[in-house]
Amino acid sequence: MPTTTWNRHHVISLADFTPAEYNTVLQTAASFQEVLSRRTKKVPTLQGQVVANLFFEPSTRTRSSFELAAKRLSADTLNFAASTSSMTKGETILDTAKTYLAMGTDIMVIRHKEAGVPNAIAQEMDRLGVRVSVLNAGDGQHEHPSQALLDLFTICTLIDRDRPNIEMLAGKKIAIVGDILHSRVARSNIWSLIASGAQVHLAAPPTLLPKLFAEYIYSEKTDILNGQLFLHWQLEPALQDADFVMTLRLQKERMTAHLLPSLREYHQLFGITRQKLQLCNSNVKVLHPGPVNRGVEISSDLMDDPEFSLIQSQVTSGVAVRMALLYLIGSGKT
Amino acid sequence: MPTTTWNRHHVISLADFTPAEYNTVLQTAASFQEVLSRRTKKVPTLQGQVVANLFFEPSTRTRSSFELAAKRLSADTLNFAASTSSMTKGETILDTAKTYLAMGTDIMVIRHKEAGVPNAIAQEMDRLGVRVSVLNAGDGQHEHPSQALLDLFTICTLIDRDRPNIEMLAGKKIAIVGDILHSRVARSNIWSLIASGAQVHLAAPPTLLPKLFAEYIYSEKTDILNGQLFLHWQLEPALQDADFVMTLRLQKERMTAHLLPSLREYHQLFGITRQKLQLCNSNVKVLHPGPVNRGVEISSDLMDDPEFSLIQSQVTSGVAVRMALLYLIGSGKT
Amino acid sequence: MPTTTWNRHHVISLADFTPAEYNTVLQTAASFQEVLSRRTKKVPTLQGQVVANLFFEPSTRTRSSFELAAKRLSADTLNFAASTSSMTKGETILDTAKTYLAMGTDIMVIRHKEAGVPNAIAQEMDRLGVRVSVLNAGDGQHEHPSQALLDLFTICTLIDRDRPNIEMLAGKKIAIVGDILHSRVARSNIWSLIASGAQVHLAAPPTLLPKLFAEYIYSEKTDILNGQLFLHWQLEPALQDADFVMTLRLQKERMTAHLLPSLREYHQLFGITRQKLQLCNSNVKVLHPGPVNRGVEISSDLMDDPEFSLIQSQVTSGVAVRMALLYLIGSGKT
Predict the structure, then answer these.
(1) Which of A142, A275, B266, C281 could be joined to A115 by an S-S link, Cβ 3.0–4.6 Å?
(2) Which CATH number fits domain A146-314: 3.40.50.1370, 3.30.390.30, 3.40.50.2300, 1.20.1300.10?
(3) Within 13 Å of residue A25, how many CA atoms lie on the same side as its CB?
(4) A17-41 pLDDT, tens digit each
């Protein structure tokens, strides 16, 4: 493992991540990626520690990724699924978290449909003076930091497999396309990409682009954005000369809320296809956090084309990045 | 581990537990509590053994506690949840248990909404002459022995952290408050507290106090109770000079069955508050098996006050006590 | 472990299994059965490898059996249950499999209600050139190879515990009774039993016997069957002098589809009882893949009689056979 300083106890949001912190995650994940290429993909780092996956919102992909990351660090894992839980018995979320704390949990990985729940739990743990770490695995429409970090790792290791660092993205043009309004993935990605010095172009239909969020950014946080964020109501200006295209999952529920005319029309206007990619830099790569609605956010053949698609690499990166996060916040305990 | 004799193969009920058995559990759990304070909280005691959690009734708290206890003893665990099982396919419960037996399960931890199921499975295992142990994790309104044992451990280790024993409670006054009629926790607690020589005071509204249970105890089992059990329809005489107050979970379903006028009225009459605690011994502590309905069985601020509340300690004790039970019934196998 | 050649990368169907392959499975499973009789029932064979149980159809028995087999080989396991998954989010099954591939899964154990899904996933993995193995844990009404292999192992180890081999069954008469039309277990069993040289007699009510399947067999595949398969609309000719009787689970849903008059009538005509067994060879044994509808496919007392019933042995064999399959397809990886 790289010798680095890391003082962060929880990972809730990327809003205040420093370049040094991003680079620590990237370099630690690169070390674990190397472990994962061995025949025995396991290290004893977190032996005897307990990682509890508290998923108050159903998930397969992210839960399995965290579970596997924890197991490869030799931690014991506990899975909590809201559907079979005492949540139906009237217990509060904080009380559930405190129960897992009292059982001896060292790290809580938390997903909840309401923004702010992981932060509330982290604050409660700090207030209690206990050395339990909280990892936000997605909270409402707020943030999904491990997803943005694995996206960053996927891109940076494409450039330099062994020595990824955030400075590599300075001046790159990155398009984020789709339902930005409802996307916690986009919110986390914006923080990391702005921090990297990239030019970030958001493209979405008017009903799915958060005007208030944009206004908030432009008014109060202009120093952070540093002229790096651009908003588009059409796809083409965002794709023009882009180095990377991040597509976002379209929740089909949006249709019923009348935010979209039809999936077909959405695909015609904002779906990524081979043809539309011709606007981009010739080495352009496409990302998607998954699960993908084939033929909606991205054409089916493009998704499967390893020349353009980084989707499988993202999943693989996910395990290494989550191992890095668990390692960084978990191994400081004594 | 303390060198003790332990001949019990299953733990179904505390009705016939001897003081020596209680003390063996308490002292073994104290040893494991010490293990749990180390950085690596794992021992190889049950390596290669299989603990199957057969939860025919949904549970998070108790299932996670047993799962973690088993993992910290290095056992392999299998989780069975009724909802995703072949129970819907018409298999009998005994057949399900025999299937897990045939797979090589060493210890079955069983929860079922019907009283008697863990005992029926234990008897079937004995009839078959196999060395599988059964732990009752809660059966209907019958018993929940591991909960009562962890309550006992929580109280005794408060008095002497390293050398807990049941004789410590002789002469103590302990109030059990709430829905005693439907509570398997109360039934198990009554057995252990009577065995300890404590004075046990039950307080509940008339609709939630089991008259038949009381009559049964007074008529047929007076030798066991030894003048130690007292019944109250009001809270105050139970709290007067009490050393410990055990509150019970109120199932909200009781409302719909017209056993209670309202939660607000229940809280006014039987909810534990700071003010009502002034009736008790000044060192009084409050327990609750969880999950708590804040502001119903106990006021929210009292629940969070470490001066009075043992609720978090109970959860922590649960892992150590369940490790002790798994160890005691599991390590005799060869 | 026996030193054998094994070139099969996936186990999807028994249709093309060679006698040498059957014997490799049988002998490897016998070695693991011996491991399972030790106190520590674990071997480090698959340490650091990941076995993902992708059960798109609910299951307890088969999923637990595979999970335990994997854990006893020291693999890490991931459980995927369709009900709590992103399947509801519109992802395709192939994409789900590719996600688990990208996470680093070494072996996928797959159950799906549609025939052909495990094969489609295996073909996709081969097309991608990755060294991931697929085990079919039951696909629609197609096949359930691990069940047929454990049935074979149960029968052969009854004859010779240490050196089971498929040639032992040459000339034996084996009846398969019940809902053959809908049974993937029967389809897999027919392949293994025909390969063994046994005489296979199918008995079912006309509505539950696959005429098309029979016609298909008789017309196109007569070379494989080699005069070894016999069809009966009544039970008695199948039982006459039989050495083994394989009963099949009756899905109660068949009643609602008007394929059966009543469970009582089904039991009278095709249920296996002590009395009907008198038609068989005096050493006859009865098998059932479970879960059993007691008093429907088989009388309750017969099911529990160890003189006749192999049902518990089948479950025990299941773990050893699945360890063998995971070992054979998993340990070739480097």
Answers:
(1) A142
(2) 3.40.50.1370
(3) 30
(4) 999 999 999 999 999 999 998 878 8
